[in-house]
Every structure is written in C-alpha cells, then in structure tokens.
Amino acid sequence: MTPRTSSIPAKVVEKVSTGRPHVVDAVKNSEIQLILNTGSNSQTKQDGYEIRRVAIRFKIPYATTTDGAKTICEAIKALKKETLSTTMTL
After folding, report:
1. How far is residue 46's CA from residue 16's CA, in Å, rounded to a whole number?
2. What CATH number has the domain bearing residue 46?
3. What's the pLDDT score for residue 2?
4. pLDDT of 52
5. Where are the beta strands (DSSP E) in the chain?
6. Residue 61 belongs to what domain range?
7. N or C of the chain: less Cβ packing under 10 Å?
8. Alpha helices in 5-87, H assignment, sequence order
9. Does residue 4 have a pLDDT over 80?
C-alpha cells in the first residue's frame, strides 16, 4: 500500500536544502500530517535533522522507510475505526 494506491492524498515537498517553500514551512503552515523522509547523503542527514525537529515540535508522525510510513497509515486507519478508551488502575 502506498499513498497513491490507498487513496491517501500525497504530495512531494522540497527538502530544506533545496530552497523554499520546503517541508519545514509546510509543517509550520499545517499542510502536512505525515512525513516520509528518505535519503542517505550528508546534506540529506542535515535536512533530516531539521525535519525531525519540526516533526517532533508539531507532533507529526515521521518515518524514514516506506514500510514505516505504511505502518503509520495502517495504525491511523485502525484508530479511526475504533473508539479508544483509557483505564487507570490504582
């Protein structure tokens, strides 16, 4: 399952090093609900650091693999189907 095959709206957003507007701007503007960040070169690592920071700050789910993003999507889908409750034991 990918965003395109699961009917989840998705768009590619620029990384920080490629110029504005970029993913950090999009998160701050509430345009993003899930981040899939892949890459392995040194610039990508610096971008990843900034992207992770903003994801944590704005409580955005963040994955570095397509399998991770798929799992997040499946979990969100399951949560939407079921009402959650909490139980406290003393």
Report:
1. 9
2. 3.40.50.1380
3. 47
4. 93
5. 35-36, 62-63
6. 16-77
7. C
8. 23-28, 42-57, 66-81
9. no
- Return the SS3 of 52: helix
Structure tokens at 36: 């899939």
pTM beyond 0.90, yes or no: no
Alpha-carbon distances of 57 from 13, 34, 52, rounded to whole Å = 19, 13, 9
Answer yes or no: is 45 within a domain.
Answer: yes
Q: With 0-12 CB in 10 A as exposed, 13-18 as middle and 19+ as buried, what is 44?
A: middle
In a domain, 68, yes or no: yes
Signed CA dihedral, 22, 55, 50, 45: sign only: negative
Pull the structure tokens for residue 24: 């950090």
